Amino acid sequence: MEFTEYKKDIISIILLLTISATILYTLLNIDMKMGVYYIHDVYSYLNNALAFAGLGGSSKNHGLSPLIPFLTSLFFRLGFVSDKTILIVSGVFYIFTALGMYGLLRIRFNELLSFTGSIVLLTFPINIAWVSKGMLDIPGLAMSIWAIYLMALGLYKNPKYYYLAFPVLILGFFTRYTVILTLPAMIMLIFFTGNPLDYIYNHLGKLLKGILSGIISLAIVLGLYRIYNIPFFFISQSSSISATSNPTASQAVSTSTAAATVNNVLYYLDNIPLYLGTRKWIPYSFKPGKYLFNKLVWIGNNPSILSYIFMAIILIGIILYLYQLLNRYNRGKILKKRDKYFYAKVILFIIPLIFYFISFTKVSLYTSILLITVSVLALFRLIRKADLKYMAIDFMFIYWGLVNITFYSYHIIKTDRYAITFTPVLAYMIVLGLYLIYMKLKDLEISEKTLNTIKVLIPMLLIIGSLGYTGYCIGENSPHTFDNRMPQDIMEASDNQRAVTDWLINYDKDYKNKEIWADDWSGIAFNLRMDVNNTASYKNQSNFTTVLLKNNVDYYIAEGKNENISSEHYKIIKEEGNIVLYKRI
Known about the structure:
Elements: H1 7-34, H2 41-52, H3 67-77, H4 83-106, H5 111-123, H6 125-128, H7 137-156, H8 162-173, H9 182-191, H10 196-202, H11 204-227, H12 233-242, H13 267-276, E1 289-292, E2 297-300, H14 305-326, H15 328-336, H16 342-358, H17 365-383, H18 391-410, H19 423-443, H20 448-476, H21 487-507, E3 516-518, H22 521-528, E4 533-534, H23 544-550, E5 555-559, E6 570-576, E7 579-584
Parallel strand pairs: 3-4, 3-5
Antiparallel strand pairs: 1-2, 5-7, 6-7
């Protein structure tokens, strides 16, 4: 292997490593000052990390996706026990996201376009807002991209890559359960080949070995779950969505504490312009918005100029793709080489697609995914004779995006960070749009020198624009949290909570054998390294004191003085800011 052959790839990878690491370092500097106090979900992962490290912690949520807590626990064992550790561990996957996306795009595009797509993905506002928050979305994104990338390498380069693709998928599943939505796209990648049955027959051995390696990986993890009697809580979240997203069905909201509302199935589509680019609040948080067509204005958040540029590129790309697909030459190839199943394919494309739309959220999630799978596959088989190189990759990305949007649209609870899962599709469509624009300019017989200048200039402007605008947002926006509280308030509240728990540790050396309840139970559990009960269901009840006494609660740590506490039975022994420690008399 000569260096000159891969020089551009090596330079691109080095630049990606440098840029992604720099962005990560900048964002960590912001979020590590505040910690995870205001993102309480992260404390559940931290408590699991403590348990994996043998350092105590709450056992209430051990069924959550375990990979990130497990990796964090390795550093806990080395003495780095801090909420900052998980911010770094999960943040490192941001770099893997960049590298995986570059590799995946390189199967279809040249080095510069692939580099551009990777930078665009890294700087999408929705991704920037969650890089260093300690949540599982960015790690899940990285694992999804790598599973798809390795599967594509197996198809286009060497089937032995299947030995890695399926284990990565399994590890991804235990990173974030929705990574399993990558599996249909991986399978369909094979069915998007010219003759999938022949391919499967010719490579059956390597495919089976790849699947077997995935099964072995799954068996190892399941064995550990069985040994330690860990529940699969995070799997049950998906089963609640699978039945229906009709708010009258209790399954749809059984895993959420939010009130049932009408399912806004267009929520993510409405906010796609904001996912592509927005100025407000980045990188501290991402706020949704909505375009009011009757008033021709955005309310809430609004897109940036970059978003409009990206949308224009995507729209032009879609038009050019359809034009190329349906031009006279390709129409002739499709119609001239039609087989006896031609009309069956037309029916299998149209009918399931119609039922997909008219029955959306009225039937089970699995039914909707099956309908769109049949429709997309039938469409591919219908037009596959068209002269479009790498059409299989194009269809795979479209299908991957449809599966993810279908899944999250079914979920009544809408959270913008869920949109992170389909940002690779948006980045791909931008790069594909640029590529098709180049091809169209070439057809217009523009001079080669001018065309080559355009091919370099436009990607460079997008790269500079994406990175520059991200830096501008970081410098312009005032630090705040998702609930618009100032960082100093959050840090003060976090310090107060730590001060109270540290005081309790010194006050009662036997505190771990006591019954402790808390309003912020997960944060207190992490600080005390023990199980702490959640008071959310009881603290506002007039008989709260009776509940505490009935459960033999020795200490109650409140966020503010609780008027439902009887001074006859509990007294305040420590108070720091808004954090109040009650002790049973």
